[in-house]
Amino acid sequence: AKITTLLSDNNTYEALKRDPTSSYKKKVIACLQGLERDKTINRLTYHHLYPGNAIPCIYGLPMIHKEGIPLRPIVSSINSVTYNIAKDLATILAPLVGNTPHHIKNSTDFTDKVQKLTLDPDETMLSFDVSYFATCACLSDKQQYPTFFRTIPSDQFQADALAKLVKHFGWTWIGVVRSDTDYGNYGVASFLNAAQKVGICVEYSESFLRTDSQSKIQRVADVIRRSTALIVVTFIDSGDLIVLLDELALEPPPPRQWIMSDRWVADPYLMTYSFCEGAIGFAIQQSIIPGLKEFLLDLSPTEVASSSVLTEFWEDAFNCSLNKRTKTDKQLCDGTEDLKTLKNSYTDTTQLRITAMVHKAVYAIAHAIHNAVCWEAVVSTKCEKHLRSDSNQIFEKLQNVNFSRNTYSVSFDANGDSLAFYELVNWQKRESGVIELVTVGYYDASLPKGQEFHVNNNISWLKGSTQVPVSVCSESCRPGTRKVLQKGKPICCYDCIPCPEGEISNTTDSPDCFPCPSESWPNAQRDACFPKPVEFLSYDEVLAIILAAFSVSGACLAIITAAIFFHHRTTPIVRANNSELSFLLLFSLTLCFLCSLTFIGAPSDWSCMLRHTAFGVTFVLCISCVLGKTVVVLMAFKATLPGSNVMKWFGPPQQKMTV
């Protein structure tokens, strides 16, 4: 009853929807078959490691010293799927446990060792770390970690590099998956900050651990399956990712472009997942350590026999036995075995990444100690072999370490971080079906801003495609439309609205439309303005000919009338009519008739300015003359009294002034 009550605690235990045992068993068998095929294990070892059929069971051990006597749950995995493998590994590791004086048995042993430490009165204990694997950006905080250094780049640099990678390929709609650890949480926080600055939107950001409940892993997998983002950026450990990929493999999602972090980018086991083909990401720079290969190959059977680990490696590599007493079907090693003939991960020292970081860390400390006990003399460098260096002095020298070795340089900035250099690598499938790691670019944080990232075009994307995948929330708005953000969604999600009548937009993703200049019209697509068509009265049109004929005829009649008036200018009727005002009237009429001609023909700047001005002036002059004459006639009829002097105010001079 107690064990049933214990398992009913939903906060601690959760019932699986399906039994994964058969799936795990198939994977273990496939792995063993691969090891046997590669001759890493023989047939006998294969059968020895073959998974059992027993189902693990749980039972409770009563804790009688506690109130209520609760149960301590214990799971028995005897003869289960992984039992034989675990048992064999324990046998291999057993000789190594406790065989070195530099190990801690338990917390009591640790306390005893610390208590035995003694310091002289003039000594100060100072510890400092030069890490080769800790990448969390939080460790750059000198207030919390004042004595921390590292030869591996901080995740802050990797986050910036990933943001530049995503921006470079035009991906603005992505998903993010991370381990729920300092590595994942701090790394993603730095990445999201960098991504926001360059206009990248995140559809989802999920975190989990391999120890989380199956339902949580399923939920993360379902989020990836249902998402519209094609790009999945990861800040995740290999162990966590394997659990997620196993869940995704049960119901493979639509093709996804995986962006890898340095923790799993070079993991050979993960390359067996076919739907990760085309993944791209940043890896720690690989280096060649001078002398390492020669050191590894300089092993004799006598040296190997003194180490159980090397003995097992030697016997597996050459399929022979070093110990005559060992009961095995292998033949006895005869001493002619040569490590130089091997081609495996042991002899391949060309792709060392984390190992190179260890090499850097050791040499950084060595240089700091060297600089503390040595000085430059006139001719050569001198060192004091028996000089007792102060820890603070070594710490100070470590801060100022700066040296180059082989293909890399080592130095630390004010935060204790080393120079960041990443290789951009791509998982490319060969004709044999094997996925290989191919370097396709790099990121060098020491270069000027804008020049850190370099990539070539030899990238294999999803399913071996050479076309860069597209991942956007909304397609770009073409010219002739404007962007309108979708309510409640990131800025990368928007609708494209056509420009209103009379307005255009001539750029992609334009936020606004604008009207055309007054002399232009928008085209049908509303993405450009074109000049308004010029319409005018041509001389060869019928209306223009009629207008010109009337205009010339009217002008001729006015001129003929003026000529007749001039001929009879001395006659009483002409003189009584104020000949000067009459000539001015006829002149203005002539100009009025001729002004019509300025409205015929293609318009120009001068004709447009002249036509209205000339007609207005001449017409007003004509009306003024008529008005002047009318006033004189009107006053002549009103001035009927004899001796009235009214008309003297309307003589020729006064009429001219009136006009």
UniProtKB/TrEMBL annotation:
The chain crosses the membrane at residues 542-566, 581-602, 614-637. It is a multi-pass membrane protein. It is found in: Cell membrane. One of its GO terms (molecular function) is G protein-coupled receptor activity. Residues 543-659 form the G-protein coupled receptors family 3 profile domain. It comes from the Eukaryota. Coiled coil: none annotated. Its main location: membrane. Keywords: Cell membrane, G-protein coupled receptor, Glycoprotein, Membrane, Receptor, Signal, Transducer, Transmembrane, Transmembrane helix. InterPro entries: ANF_lig-bd_rcpt, GPCR_3, GPCR_3_9-Cys_dom, GPCR_3_9-Cys_sf, GPCR_3_C, GPCR_3_Ca_sens_rcpt-rel, GPCR_3_vmron_rcpt_2, Peripla_BP_I. It holds the Pfam family 7tm_3. Belongs to the G-protein coupled receptor 3 family. PANTHER family: C-FAMILY ODORANT RECEPTOR OLFCD2-RELATED (PTHR24061:SF528), CALCIUM-SENSING RECEPTOR-RELATED (PTHR24061). This is Extracellular calcium-sensing receptor-like.
